[in-house]
Amino acid sequence: MTTNYPELANDLSASIARLRKGIPDTMKGFSMMAAAATADGTLDPKMKELIATAIGVAVRCDGCVAFHAKAAEKNGASREEVLETLGMAVYMGGGPSMVYAAQALDAYDQFADGSNVQN
């Protein structure tokens, strides 16, 4: 079964919105941390999203892969850059990361194709 990553990202966004309403202070803190971590600095947003994609693969988080593959594509990552990033994730995570790397590539391709993407 192939995961539809654009659909997963949209579904998770709705779930996170409900979580934000239920625990607003916690989610505000998380949002502040995310803003600080993703702010422009020595590493550009594309590089940060490639790193986040690799971490999503290494920790085997479908939602992380969906969000960060989408953000990597949005920030201009090429398929070749994604593949090289996934190579590092597989190297660091072994066989289980190889399976998630294949799924992360599916996610990137789905967002780059744009046929399933909903804002």
Radius of gyration: 14 Å
How does the major sheet shape up? none
What is the rounded distance between the termini?
24 Å
Structural class: mainly alpha
Task: Summarize the amount of helix as a percent range.
Answer: over 70%
Number of strands: 0
Gross CATH architecture: Up-down Bundle
Global mean pLDDT: 92
The proportion of strand residues reads under 5%
What is CATH's topology name?
AhpD-like
CATH first level: Mainly Alpha
SSE pattern, N- to C-terminal: HHHHH
CATH H-level homologous superfamily name = AhpD-like
Individual helix count? 5
Shape assignment: globular
Summarize the structure.
By secondary structure, the chain is mainly α.
Can you characterise this structure?
The protein is mainly α and 119 residues long. Helices cover 80% and strands 0% of the residues. The chain contains five helices and no strands. It has helices at residues 5-22, 24-38, 45-58, 62-74, 79-113. Helix 3 (45-58) runs antiparallel to helix 4 (62-74), helix 3 packs across helix 5 and helix 4 (62-74) packs across helix 5. The radius of gyration is 14 Å and the shape is globular. The protein starts with a helix and ends in a 6-residue tail after the last helix. The mean pLDDT is 92.
Describe the SSE topology:
Elements: H1 5-22, H2 24-38, H3 45-58, H4 62-74, H5 79-113
Could you list some keywords that capture this structure?
about 120 residues, mainly alpha, AhpD-like
